[in-house]
């Protein structure tokens, strides 16, 4: 049975029930979880998937409300993530409920993040995907407020990302949303710069090192590997899009260097 089926069965919810993640799910389910003597077993992967799903949408709602109001673009961004995940009606209701709970004044973001980090352990690639999802939410309305910036840095600090690592991720997201420059030459230059940034290399990096960086990123972001580490299967499309971006960046660099 998947994490979702066990969640609806109550037992998985109880396994998360020792903290704020369980409280968020419990508010949605509308009842307390199964008793403590439950013998149903859970894979670590299922707990991680449930924690990732719960933290992603609740923190997204918290960030959307950070500047005092939730914009139309921010709501649309949340809906786009749900659409990418091909959620069924029940899963979508949970995602919306989590988003709304994250907007509450009493939302315990630190508690949610600590429990998510504990469930995901040291799966850095999962943490990166989480941060990228929140960056998309932050830039959904075209700008980043001081409070959103504070929350972003706090999230990165909890998950163990350095300021430099966060700036790298942020540059990827903001450049992607900004789009290419004007005119053919500007477009090529802009896209090439974005490609180097995505692979974490520069125009002075050797061909061999560029290839190594490409292969390393493709391995880290392979959808099957991410799911095995705890990415909810419903988010597989997000992982596929990431690998497509990496491949496109590498192909662009190769083509430019071949000319």
Give an account of the 3D structure.
With about 260 residues, this protein is mainly α. The protein has a domain at about 180-259: DnaJ domain (Helix Hairpins). Helix content is about 75%, strand content about 0%. The protein contains 14 helices and no strands. Helix 8 packs across helix 10. The protein starts with a helix and ends with a helix.
Brief overview, please?
The chain has 259 residues and is mainly α. The chain contains 14 helices and no strands. It is globular.
Q: Secondary-structure blueprint of this entry?
A:
Elements: H1 3-9, H2 11-15, H3 20-29, H4 44-64, H5 72-84, H6 89-102, H7 109-120, H8 124-138, H9 146-159, H10 163-178, H11 183-199, H12 207-220, H13 223-229, H14 236-258
Helix pairs in contact: 4-6, 4-7, 4-8, 5-8, 8-9, 8-10, 11-14, 12-14, 13-14
Which labels suit this protein?
single chain, 259 residues, mainly alpha, Helix Hairpins, 14 helices, 0% strand
- CATH fold call of the domain at 179-259: Helix Hairpins
* Distance from first to last alpha carbon: 52 Å
Radius of gyration: 19 Å
CATH level 4 superfamily of the domain at 179-259: DnaJ domain
Derived from helix and strand composition plus strand pairing, the structural class reads mainly alpha
Percent in helix: over 70%
Low-confidence stretches: 31-41, 179-184
How much β-strand is present in the residues? under 5%
